[in-house]
């Protein structure tokens, strides 16, 4: 009877104790989250309840397994399995706790600093730091798991003896990967490009969506994703429209007839911008910038607070100005002139072309 009750008491008690401690901890975190709604720390910590319960259960089972008298023939294998589960769940829990602390720190910083550019820079750094921390925890956990096997501990001495040669070979083989990793750290702490920045890369306009230690993803205006190695941004020029202040100046061009009403167009441009919510009110102007034998080139300068709004302002001004010219001043639109040339006063076609000549 004891051989049956002892395993049930040990295993059942470990599971019940794990569930009880996990439930009590979750209740405490929930109450702390209700009392402190301004910080997301407690709610983020609740996301780690599964690895937390795994750690508790694995630790309790590992500590009480010797007294359970269960599967004695496989005592070593079961004990090693519980140890591996404990190490893996502990690494999972550490990553969740680190993520909660880092996310809380970033949220507080974002609330305290209204500067969007600085917030994006910190967000980029935080995400890369979190990736580095996760990688370190995973590597340490994997090494700890391997060291639980006696064969791996015995092979450790020979591995250390050849570490120099292996390091050189790995460095040569992973040269591009290592350069990308260092480029990722340079981007994160050099403030070259940040998550949320508007960039132009290889003629493609888009927003930086993700930055890792090895690659960077740009989401284009038509919702395509361009994935590029981060070393590209440290070795080649690119446009960052969000660098410094996000305010931008845009241009709108029209090719019109020489008789276009320029002064009336200036007044119409002012009226269009006043009715456009995307215009930031900083500046605007309209000038004739070029002339050809058939048309003139008219350029309008407009301003907006960021790249998205400048696009809206430009298309609005272009569309409404063309509509207004078509309705009010259709003669201003470019056309092919097939009429006879208008001569200056006092001149006739005979005086211009000279006396008529007749063949003899």
TrEMBL record:
Pfam short name (any one): MS_channel_2nd
GO terms under cellular component: membrane
Compartments, as annotated in UniProt: Membrane
Keywords: Membrane, Transmembrane, Transmembrane helix
Membrane-crossing residue ranges in chain numbering: 81-102, 128-149, 155-174
Main location per the UniProt record: membrane
Record domain Mechanosensitive ion channel MscS: where: 177-243
GO biological process: transmembrane transport
Protein name (record): Mechanosensitive ion channel protein
Native organism: Streptomyces diastatochromogenes
